[in-house]
Write a structure and sequence with these properties.
Elements: H1 10-27, H2 34-57
Length: 61
């Protein structure tokens, strides 16, 4: 069997984005914006990962 790339999971990117967003929110003393920035960043990273996954596998669904 060929070694196919694993499909990116949305949850991993959202959790990572929330963690980084909260860290940035604390660093810049704007904790209320941390989760929003984290969610947007996580969704953006997931979309980029899905584009790369589709390029590698040729899957257009």
């Amino acid at each position: 069997m060929l070694n196919e790339p694993k499909k990116p999971e949305l949850g991993n990117y959202i959790v990572g984005g929330l963690a980084i967003g909260m860290l940035l929110g604390v660093m810049f003393n704007k904790v209320q914006f941390g989760p929003l920035l984290g969610l947007v960043g996580g969704l953006l990273a997931h979309n980029i990962a899905m584009i790369n996954y589709r390029k590698k596998t040729g899957d257009m669904s």
